[in-house]
Automatic annotation (TrEMBL), chains A, B:
PANTHER family: ACREF/ENVCD OPERON REPRESSOR-RELATED (PTHR43479), ACREF_ENVCD OPERON REPRESSOR-RELATED (PTHR43479:SF11). It holds the Pfam family TetR_N. It comes from the Bacteria. Residues 19-79 form the HTH tetR-type domain. SUPFAM superfamilies: Homeodomain-like (SSF46689), Tetracyclin repressor-like, C-terminal domain (SSF48498). It comes from Rhizocola hellebori. The keyword Metal-binding does not apply. Coiled coil: none annotated. InterPro entries: Homeodomain-like_sf, HTH-type_Tx_Regulator, HTH_TetR, Tet_transcr_reg_TetR-rel_C_sf. This is TetR family transcriptional regulator. Keywords: DNA-binding. One of its GO terms (molecular function) is DNA binding.
Length: 215, 215
DNA sequence: GTCTATATATGGATAGAC
DNA sequence: GTCTATCCATATATAGAC
């Protein structure tokens, strides 16, 4: 079948077409990953969804793993731009409810907005050999900032439930797993409900000072 | 190579040998799953580790999934026997620190003692198509008891951070993911440290009433 | 019931024309 | 750069002898 070779106003140069194909593959991967996930998706699924050929795929990516890396790079660029709007000094105090909520909300929003990528990344991590320790390593890496904030809080005199590294990993585990498992169909207001609940749970736990419901 | 056909005192009946082979396959699967995990393990990896043939495998299990189901059944039988030692009435109050810790400790211990199985089960769940909602469904199922306890606590007048179902899922997500990611090499005393930290975090959160360290 | 040997299916990856 | 056609590696599952 004939495929549009210049759907945009861009000049139909060889270079521009390559970029177009690459973008089409990335976009198709996002679509396919959100349904079938990363592990069950075959290269041919992506190329079929993009309307390209298998051979063309390998002109842009060495394999499926490299495709995922490119998607992660895109996401991080986008997330960094988003984060630049907020100030993120190191001296955050996560024992302050508002600041804790802000962090949870940002993490949750990024996971939601880039769901196909985070889902794929999560699957890829889990599929690694358990003996390799990659899951633990990944958990530590993704919670580095969180850990630093906790260390700061502790230095300020707030005693923590445990070592900052462990607490950060626990929180990261909760957010990551919940973000993966939560259906894509939840509404924005549910997102708020979830962020509020997680914030309260992590801020003051199950016994924190909350008003008893009126009954 | 010659393989022992009657390593035990049992009579070498056809039936006994079948049971022996089945047990050998299950034991081999535990060993292999703990290193390479469930997803990356091939049927031939299991049979090779068990010293049996591929053809023999299919005499006992229809496929890898059924092998895992058999391992889960074994684990649940073992866990139930273990749980029978404690009383588990429905009227537990997880806002009580000791009772919360008990629950976390049991969950953590089961995950540790049956690590190959829980790891395999976790991988199998994650590998399912994200669009199927299996991860969310699994999370709800595995936290049913937890949810009931939380509902009880709430009925007793303890306000929770959110809906019991969501809070239970969040706690389950934390425990499940952390149990998966935590290296198999941690020492028993580290297990205690982890259980204590998680208990404190979930009980009173990051700001709960704890003594400031002497400094 | 267990074995060896093999059929079958799948998907990753490449060659060469356009 | 993109395509079609194809090679090739891998793993599931079965057939048939013992």
């Amino acid at each position: 079948m004939a495929r549009a070779t210049a759907t945009t106003a861009k000049a139909n140069t060889r270079k521009a077409q390559a970029a177009e194909t690459r973008a089409a593959l990335l976009a198709a991967a996002r679509r396919v990953f959100s349904e079938r996930g990363y592990l069950n998706t075959k290269i041919t699924d992506v190329t079929a969804a993009a309307g390209r050929s298998t051979g063309s795929f390998y002109e842009h990516f060495a394999d499926k793993e490299q495709l995922l890396q490119a998607m992660i790079a895109e996401m991080e660029a986008s997330a960094d731009a988003h984060l630049a709007q907020h100030d993120h000094p190191n001296d955050h105090d996560l024992t302050d409810r508002a600041q804790l909520r802000e962090h949870i909300a940002i993490a949750w929003t990024v996971m939601r907005e880039h769901r196909p990528v985070t889902v794929a990344q999560f699957q890829s991590m889990i599929a690694a050999d358990p003996g390799s320790g990659r899951a633990w390593q990944s958990l530590l890496e993704q919670t580095t900032t969180l850990r630093e904030h906790l260390e700061y809080s502790r230095a300020q005199g707030h005693p923590l439930p445990g070592e900052p590294q462990l607490i950060a990993a626990a929180i990261g585990a909760m957010l990551g797993m919940l973000g993966y498992a939560t259906p894509a169909t939840v509404q924005p207001k549910d997102d708020d409900r979830i962020v509020d609940a997680l914030t309260d749970l992590l801020h003051s736990g199950l016994t924190g000072p909350r008003q008893t419901s009126p009954q």
